[in-house]
Amino acid sequence: MTDAPIEREKLISLDDLLAMGDARVEIIDGEVKIMAPAGFQHHFFAGNVYNILNSYVTEHDLGVVMMDGLTYLMFSETSGLKDLFLPDVSFIHKDDFPADWDIAKPFPGVPTLAVEVMSPDDKAIEIQAKVRTYLSKGTQEVWVIYPAEREIHQFRGDDLETARIYTGSRPIDVSALFPELTITTDEVFHLPKWVQGDAKQNE
Fold first, then answer.
1. pTM of the predicted model as reported, rounded to 2 decimal places
2. Is residue 177 part of a domain?
3. Pick from 7, 112, 126, 149: most CB atoms within 10 A?
4. Domain harbouring 142, CATH code
């Protein structure tokens, strides 16, 4: 006699999610994850990426760059959300906007670019699952930022398994999405002296 298969817990719906109010959650392969509050450094590095990309995207009218908070439904059925992500920074090319999307609601699809900043409580297996989901569903690039290591791992849709790793002053190859833009890991991890605690030393 064999044991009967265990039924998977019912997926929550978009209505269920919205009823949670301000709770910050992601859904990874049907599993709901409550997101822990992020620290200052986390947001500062994400802000560095946002400022660089937003300036370029606005100047060239490419689309929109969003900070943390925009919910991507990842093409999940709203009656049962299998995947739902909130990247720290994201870019949506103007050609990727659905014609009939109600902009008051979460974005139904995927970002053109997703940027994830690792937090101490993030698990490697979860970020790997997210990267594969992003790319398999149509995101062109995913950048995973590792603050402790001062590294940026870049994944592309044409290669779901291989990461390009950037450190130091090495320019990140962003030519596929942002031609002629130069961005280095030094710029992403830049902190002003007053944040580091040694501003005003000459006062």
1. 0.88
2. yes
3. 112
4. 3.90.1570.10
